[in-house]
Amino acid sequence: MRLKLVMIVALIAGLVGSGSSIAIIMTRSASLQVLSSPDLVVTTTLVLPIASVILAAFFVYRHTARRRKTQALLTGVLAAFLSLGVFIVASILTSRNTPLQPQPTTPRNIG
Predict the structure, then answer these.
(1) Can you tell me the distance from the alpha carbon of 75 to that of 14, in angstroms, rounded to the nearest whole number?
(2) What span, in angstroms and rounded, lies between the C-alpha atoms of 68 and 74?
């Protein structure tokens, strides 16, 4: 097996697919209201990671001589896990450190 090819292509596919989606989300939306209304940009953020994983698996399938299916499957699975990992790291890094506290209400003495 060409393990270097599988690893490098999966790493590139994971970073490009999820990185481009994260870049679109970060630049396009300042609030979640934009992402809740489906349009072409929201659709592309969903399609880009999937397309990059498929293209990476196809690239490895076409550029290896033996055990093509195994290497393509390994590349696809590895790229999908790397994309998921990049999404998780990005969500951790862009999250708020302190949760928003509700406004304190003044106690009312009734009776």
Answers:
(1) 10
(2) 10
Q: pTM value?
A: 0.77
In a domain, 98, yes or no: no
> What integer pLDDT is reported at residue 85 of this predicted model?
95
The total number of residues written for the chain in this structure:
111
Classify residue 107: in a domain, yes or no: no
Contact 21, 45 (CB under 8 A): yes
CA distance 73 to 79: 10
Q: How many domains does one find in the chain?
A: 1
Is 22 domain-assigned?
yes
Going by C-alpha positions, the residue among 39, 47, 40 that lies closest to residue 21 is 47
Instruction: Quote the DSSP letter at residue 108.
Output: -
Give the end-to-end CA distance of the chain in Å, rounded to a whole number: 81
